[in-house]
Design goal:
- It is built from one helix and 13 strands.
- It is mainly β.
- It has one domain: Acid Proteases (Cathepsin D, subunit A, domain 1, Beta Barrel), CATH 2.40.70.
């Protein structure tokens, strides 16, 4: 894997990772970029959605992270995949795991949906 460089040879990117290019679910046909990440200390896969307002953290991962609703920021409902979701916002340290060079650590805003039993 070759890392990106400026014309003078200085690094533009200091890490790189492999990715999958596939539909995210069995019902979808459109392929997406899927990468390995750590949400705090929980390893999972994430798909890239450049049109998303927030990163979405699945409720099962939020439970594993012991996120309490009183620690989050209430927000307006969002429309996601044709469903209106209510939830809470959290800032959670996240790492895009590098296979070569340095991993990238960021602190994005995650939307954690409060799902009903049929969702």
């Amino acid at each position: 894997m070759m890392l990106l460089q400026f014309g003078d040879g200085k690094p533009y990117a200091t890490g790189a990772t492999n990715y999958q290019y596939r539909p995210v679910t069995e019902r979808e046909k459109t392929p997406r970029i899927v990468v390995s990440i750590l949400i705090d200390d929980v390893r999972t896969l994430a798909f890239v959605d450049t049109g998303g307002v927030y990163a979405i953290c699945p409720p099962d991962i939020a439970l594993e992270l012991n996120l309490a609703s009183q620690d989050g920021i209430p927000t307006e409902p969002i429309l996601w995949r044709g469903n209106i979701l209510r939830g809470t916002l959290y800032r959670i340290p996240t790492t895009i795991i590098a296979e070569t060079g340095n991993s990238l650590r960021i602190v994005p805003t995650f939307f954690v949906p409060q799902l009903t039993p049929n969702q």
